[in-house]
Amino acid sequence: MIEKIKEEFAAHVRLLQDQITDALKEIDADIEITEDNWQRKDTLGNPGGGGRTRAFSGNAIENAGVNTSLVYGATSEQFAKQIGATKAEMWATGVSLIIHPRNPRIPTCHANFRMICGGDKVWFGGGADLTPFYPNVEDFQFFHDVWKETCTPYGFYQDWKKQCDEYFVNKHRDNEMRGVGGIFYDHFFSGDMEKDLEMFKDISNQFIRSYFPIVKKRINEEFTKEDEDFQLHRRGRYVEFNLLHDRGTHFGLKSNGRTDSILISLPARCNFTYCYSPKEGSPHEEMMKYYYPREW
Amino acid sequence: MIEKIKEEFAAHVRLLQDQITDALKEIDADIEITEDNWQRKDTLGNPGGGGRTRAFSGNAIENAGVNTSLVYGATSEQFAKQIGATKAEMWATGVSLIIHPRNPRIPTCHANFRMICGGDKVWFGGGADLTPFYPNVEDFQFFHDVWKETCTPYGFYQDWKKQCDEYFVNKHRDNEMRGVGGIFYDHFFSGDMEKDLEMFKDISNQFIRSYFPIVKKRINEEFTKEDEDFQLHRRGRYVEFNLLHDRGTHFGLKSNGRTDSILISLPARCNFTYCYSPKEGSPHEEMMKYYYPREW
User: Fold this and answer.
1) Domains plus CATH for chain A?
2) Measured between alpha carbons, how far is A256 from A258 in angstroms, rounded to an integer?
3) ipTM entry
4) Which of B268, B269, B272 has its CB closest to that of A263?
5) Testing the interface with A: which of B56, B172, B260 to mutate, by most A Cβ within 10 A?
């Protein structure tokens, strides 16, 4: 049965990659797409799977990455231990994506959905989180509502929302969050693989409707130089989180992953300013208060 | 005697901070300077010294930071062990600086010079390294010549040059260096504190003449859009190094240092581009070959 589940989730993430690619093309007709298919070897030098990286560069979407991978094979004892595998081999598949729109009125969005097997253990991880730069609170509410509505029937919304609030945090910036959160889960296994498969297919299928309506709503909105300055500053914070704290980034780089596929998460442009603070009374100052956990 | 040496090196780094500040003002008459004096507590909550941060923002010099600090007091056992101190207390002073010129024909430069005492152990650390974006090889040669000439009489040039080549490396980018190197040393103690003090005063005094002549020579040089694109891309690599690999940055952030003073090292603007490669036959493609160790 496990083989069938692996196959089904692997096919699912590739389908999702295509669907998200289509959604991006719909938003930005002239978007340039670079597709790279890459392969890897496992720690014994045997074929270990690979991935399909899609890098996007456009007008409405300044840069984006929508990647899938399916990797397997021998792994180090240390790595097996770290992921809780029962022997030194693994199998994993997933889709991960990051979308950095050019217009600062449109939030940046990140998501990933993955399945991992180590020996006879199977689990799922993933989530979706929003990083806005302008206090259009109704958009944040919309995003959180989709995830609340999706995850509540399964009984995990509060837990996964909290995990997200706790994960995407710049500890070195007085615990400011990267964005406004969303959901995040890891090492999930209910005991019923088939049920989990269906649940995470359902959950990941909600990504498009959680985010793209916001993009469409804001895409023609005018923005100011101040909006862009704030966006570029917050993108700097995004870089700080991804390079200083993100376990996925560190794990990928340390396990000799494909660097350009991993760091596709970084924004095309960003700024770093000593002791940055938004103008008093500006929408950006207002935005700052949303970068902390709250009920949605 | 150790008290006199501490006092002398602390005064020295503050003098150097003023001299480098003056050198920056000479280059960029209208440069804005923000000075922040900050204080810290030690791990027992007692006064633990502090620092003087100077952030620069100008035309010729896009952003720069020239910081001194003098910190002391109780520390964790773990930290004491890590720095090799004989008991859980420390004293440290130093100057650290980063200069990001706007013109891509002028290299970015970083240096720091510090003295650390842990229990009855004393040592020095520091160095200076250059990160150019345009293959003006004579400038790299000039910089390396100053350090070679300075450190050779002491017998340490080859060792410190090699340590620099090995330290400022983006391992996740196929071991590409951040720049073209310089010198780097750590945990240095010859057995004769007074001799070491004089040596490191002398060495740090050479910083201004190793770098500012290059700035002055290139400051009015025209540059192209392509030069700037390459600079912004390489500044992205600089950020990757500082946030992923730099021990000083990690140490500072983990030990609850002042975040804005630590991350003053990051460039005001930078870019990240999926699978970036410079144009074939361009000066930037030529520049790429200098980001690996070589004899100067």
Assistant:
1) 2-288 (3.40.1500.10)
2) 7
3) 0.95
4) B272
5) B172
